[in-house]
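Structure in, sequence out. Go:
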């Protein structure tokens, strides 16, 4: 279901899931839950396409992503409850103009 929602919306389920989960489980734990869901989602894709998996490329991307993951996790620990609740909203609102601006660069 996670992959279907992400594919239909074009934004990815990691961005839409927090908006749905925040009123249900509270804003303080809304970011880790989609993170765990993404781990399961991507692990199942990796298992399904294991013959096509490029370990070298995955290691390069993983090492490149590690510093920003650590920085964003540290930043998340600094946020209070109301700020955590505002974060997904701000990101989704900022995505529309950012997506348009980045698509203009490609042309």
């Amino acid at each position: 279901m996670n992959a279907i929602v992400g594919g239909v919306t074009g934004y990815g389920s990691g961005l839409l899931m927090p908006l749905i989960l925040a009123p249900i489980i509270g804003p303080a734990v809304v970011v880790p839950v989609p993170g765990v869901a993404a781990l399961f989602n991507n692990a199942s894709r990796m298992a399904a396409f294991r013959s096509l998996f490029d370990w070298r490329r995955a290691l390069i991307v993983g090492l490149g992503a590690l510093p920003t993951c650590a920085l964003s996790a540290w930043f998340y620990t600094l946020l209070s409850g109301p700020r955590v609740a505002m974060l997904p909203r701000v990101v989704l609102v900022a995505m529309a103009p950012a997506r348009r601006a980045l698509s203009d660069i490609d042309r």
